[in-house]
Amino acid sequence: MVKDKRIRIITGHYGSGKTEFAANYTLNLAKSGKKTAIVDLDIVNPYFRSRQIEPLFEEKGIRVISSSIKGLAGDLPALSPEIYTVMEDKSYEAVIDMGGDKAGATALGRYHDRLDKDECDMFFVLNANRPLTADKQSAIRYLRSIEQGSRQKVTALVNNTHLCGDTEIGDIMKGQELCLQVSQELGLPIKYTVVHKKLIGDLPDDICGEIFPIDIFMKKPWEME
């Protein structure tokens, strides 16, 4: 993580687990002692937004930047001017949780001229169990649409193939095969393989990328009080 660029943009198809990955990544950054901020730029999809666990972030000293309209389920595309802070204040290590389709990605596209490309990584979180990214061509098509909307280039892939609580090692390896196909086609590295901590001991030795253990923080709508 410390070798990643200062601003980490996290994107991927809805249901890929990008927000869970972004949340865990942000918490790990703060745990390492970094001055950390997370930008919730997912202003289209009302579910699984980083702001859902804002009290936990704040407890860990993480600055949370989200919509200027407060509320978990609001769908107003209101962007806070605080977003410029992480772009200009280089003392921050930042994570940007971006929208999961081309329309959501355009929220980042408006800042393309303010983002220093040398300071940005964009990680495409891939879940091979999602219908619109289940094969190589579909995944590449989706990735390209995100790049077009955001006006940024993906720099690495993240294998986060899962079935929520029913995830098995076979799912992770299925995702690795898809990531390898996309990696070879586009020349992109596989940066991380995301694994729930309870499955770490069962992983084979031929995992691509860094193993990224996670806890589950994001709640489904019907699990929230």
Automatic annotation (TrEMBL):
Q: A single GO molecular function, which one?
A: ATP binding
InterPro entries noted in UniProt? P-loop_NTPase
Q: Does the keyword Nucleotide-binding apply?
A: yes
Highest rank taxon of the organism? Bacteria
Q: Which UniProt keywords apply?
A: ATP-binding, Nucleotide-binding
UniProt name for this protein = ATP-binding protein
Q: Which organism is it from?
A: Lutispora saccharofermentans
